[in-house]
Amino acid sequence: MRTRILVVLAAVVTALLAGCGSTPAEQPKSLILATTTSTQDSGLLDELLPVFTRESGWQVKTVAVGSGQAIELGRRGEADVLLVHSPAAEEKFVAEGSAGPRRLVMHNDFVLIGPKADPAGIRGTSSAEAMKKIAGEQAVFVSRGDESGTHSKEKDLWSRAGVTPGGSWYQSTGQGMGETLRVASEKAGYTLSDRATYLTQRDTLQLEVLSEGDPGLLNVYHVIEMTKKAGDRVQTDGAKAFADWIVAAPAQRLIGEFGRATFGQPLFTPDAGKDETKLGL
Amino acid sequence: MDVLFGGLADAVRLLLSGDEDSWSIIALTLRVSLTATAIALLLGLPLGAAVAVARFPGRRILLAAANTGMGMPPVVVGLFVTVLLWRSGPLGGLGLLYTPTAMVIAQGAIATPIVVALVAAALQQVDPDFRVQMQALGATPVRALAALLGEARLPLLAGAMAAFGAVVSEVGAAQMVGGNLAGQTRVLTTAAVLATSRGQFSLAIAFGLILLLIAFGVNLSLTLIQQRQAVTR
Fold it and tell me: What percent of chain B has pLDDT over 70?
């Protein structure tokens, strides 16, 4: 009787495995896109990727992580193409030589947000002054702490304000933007967020935009194709197909429209082909 | 509180409306976790039986390893499997990362130690005289083992339930090796995490409730089998 059960089990496993195996066979062309949590949490990729797959035949496997990890995946050849927003780290990475072309895709901006009561009094101030005030008041600040593009922008703001954050008021989640916003909301703390993720989640948060609009808060996304120098299995044709597609007019139009219906304002500004220096970086 | 009720309403709506995305997530969850459990049983039954009955060097170490493995963090298993399946890793040529197969491998690795440990414990519970009797009756070792497994079938089914429960509810490995790709590797746990990070709490709770329902359904079936056998025994 035991043998019979084992035979049945073996048959079930074979059948199920065959089922699993058939999936990749149906989709021979698939590329790996390493990108940031903001493009996934805001829902932008859900809008873009099905269109890309329909038009190009490439399935896209998205790994949504912090920009630091996305770049690391690219460096190891574990991803074919990157969509990231950490310009300083990107430039260093491209200079290493394993990456191919890097092109401007879009931007939005970072906003400093916090509780309505605004204990540190940063409403309407510049980002540098806001950071100084938060540190001066030792008001709770919730950091991503995950080497993401947002995190490196935050570190950049602290150093421009001449502050080394630390102590019990400075809390690091090590998680994505959505989670970090939630923690900040629960702790009535300040945090730095990209505008897109904040807007898509505003209804569930007790947080308001308190400081915005200065040029230091620009959030710029680039697409980077990887090359065989990063790894033998990098699919350069897929990388090129995706990068060419996302900077072309139809995708740029989709990006410009995304969020307009729901939030009354677009979440990203398409920038392909623009001169980077004119963005105010 | 309204989030909880919203979640309940969402769960009912997703199930009744035949929402294609949700049903494919449910189907994949079942397929991956049941396959992983079945593999764990195939590997774990003989291994656990060997640990319980046979005497060989390293037996206690193997048992201790299995007992440790019962509490193995899925994230750690996921990390190991990810590194193995990386393009630059030893199994990179198979292109398995971010596929359901990769999830089955990781969940199988999580479930196997559970089966080994519980099978070993179950068989060691059986009265030692039972085996002596079997040998005295002239049973071959294989027949004796089969009878032994039959004797311990109730705790064995409990082992299957524990293994399934562990893998269907884990999120760390599924996220890491599967990547939570929409329509390809998104299962109920990773879908719930994503919905949470998007601030869609009702949807997240709906996925959670459906997960509970599935776990209950599978365990109910196994319990019914188990208890029927308990009565007929």
Answer: 97
Q: Kindly report, residue by residue over A4-56, the tens digit of the pLDDT.
A: 555 555 565 566 555 544 444 444 689 999 999 889 888 899 999 999 999 99
Search chain A and give the residue with CA nearest B151: A2
- Nearest CB among B87, B179, B197 relative to A41 is that of B197
CB contact under 8 A, B35 and A234: no
SS3 B200: coil
pLDDT tens digits along B84-103: 999 888 998 888 999 999 99
pLDDT at B31 over 70: yes
In the CATH scheme, what is the code of domain A28-108+219-276?
A: 3.40.190.10
Identify the helix (H) or strand (E) that includes residue B153.
helix B153-169
Cα separation, A60 vs A188, in Å, equals 38
Least CA distance to B152: which residue of chain A?
A2
Q: Where are the domains of chain B?
A: 31-200
Chain A residues touching B199 at Cβ < 8 A: 178, 181-182, 200-201, 203-205
CA dist list (Å): A205 to A116, A182, B48: 11, 7, 50
Q: Terminus-to-terminus CA distance in chain A, angstroms?
A: 73
Distance CA B102, CA B104 (A): 5
CA-only gyration radius of chain A, Å: 22
User: Can you tell me which residue has the tokens 């030589």?
Assistant: A97
pLDDT in tens, B112-165: 999 999 999 988 888 777 777 777 787 787 787 778 778 788 888 889 999 999
Beta-strand (E) ranges in A124-268?
141-143, 170-172, 191-194, 208-211, 218-226
Q: Which DSSP category does B176 fall into?
A: I
Test B199 with A204 for CB contact under 8 angstroms. yes
Residues of A in contact with B184 (CB under 8 A): 23, 59, 61
CATH code for the domain defined by B31-200: 1.10.3720.10
* Interface-testing mutation among A1, A14, A16, A46, with chain B (most B C-beta atoms within 10 A): A16
Looking at CATH, the fold of the domain delimited by A109-217 is given as: D-Maltodextrin-Binding Protein; domain 2 (3.40.190)
pLDDT at residue B20, as a whole number: 83
C-alpha A268/C-alpha A16 separation (Å) is: 42
Quickly tell me which residue has 């699919």 as its tokens: A235
Q: What is the residue extent of each domain of chain A?
A: 28-108+219-276, 109-217
Look up residue B50 and give its two tokens: 């060997």
| Section B72-78 average pLDDT | 93
Ranges of chain A whose pLDDT falls below 50: 1, 20-27
CA-to-CA distance for A139 and A120, rounded, in angstroms?
A: 6
Q: How far is A233 from chain B (nearest CA, A)?
A: 6
The span from the CA of A205 to the CA of A197, in Å, is 11
Helix (H) or strand (E) segment spanning residue A218? strand A218-226
